[in-house]
UniProtKB/TrEMBL annotation:
Domain DUF3817: 17-114
GO CC annotation: plasma membrane
Full protein name: DUF3817 domain-containing protein
Subcellular location: Cell membrane
Keyword Ribonucleoprotein attached: no
Chief location bin: membrane
Domain of life assignment: Bacteria
Membrane topology designation: Multi-pass membrane protein
Transmembrane feature ranges: 21-43, 63-84, 93-109
Keywords: Cell membrane, Membrane, Transmembrane, Transmembrane helix
NCBIfam families from the UniProt entry: integ_memb_HG
């Protein structure tokens, strides 16, 4: 069996840095979205109560929801980029995508992913190992 192709450590770390920022932004954006939904549907009764406050939260929801969707799509693309650079299996990619779906999970997922990137880069051969030798 041939030896696995070495990873590009610089590209992997750069990709992870982008993913890290996206994880934090996605986590905050998701918390904002959940807060808006709670205010809209729980506190002010959603579309049933025709009050000025309810209408404001409905409008805020209509503006923020697509913004959050765009942020999540960027998060997915950057997670996919990291997955490609690290040459992980399909379950790991699905897990990266899942981290951005549940509020607060992206913060923990970022820490978990950081540990996996560091351990994989220490364990697997990299192009930079060959250059150092």
């Amino acid at each position: 069996m041939p030896a696995p192709r070495p990873l590009d450590e610089v590209a992997a770390r750069t990709s992870f840095a982008r993913f890290r920022v996206a994880s934090i932004v996605e986590g905050i954006a998701l918390l904002v979205l959940v807060s808006i939904m709670v205010m809209r549907y729980v506190v002010f009764g959603g579309d049933v109560a025709f009050t000025t406050t309810s209408d404001q939260w409905t409008q805020i929801s209509k503006v923020w929801s697509p913004i959050h969707g765009l942020i999540y799509m960027v998060y997915v693309v950057l997670g996919f980029d990291l997955w490609l650079k690290m040459r992980w299996g399909l379950p790991r990619m699905l897990l990266l995508m899942f981290f951005g779906v549940i509020p607060v999970l992206s913060f923990f997922g970022e820490r978990w992913t950081h540990q996996r990137v560091e351990s994989d880069l220490a364990r697997r051969p990299t192009l930079q190992d060959e250059a150092r030798a």
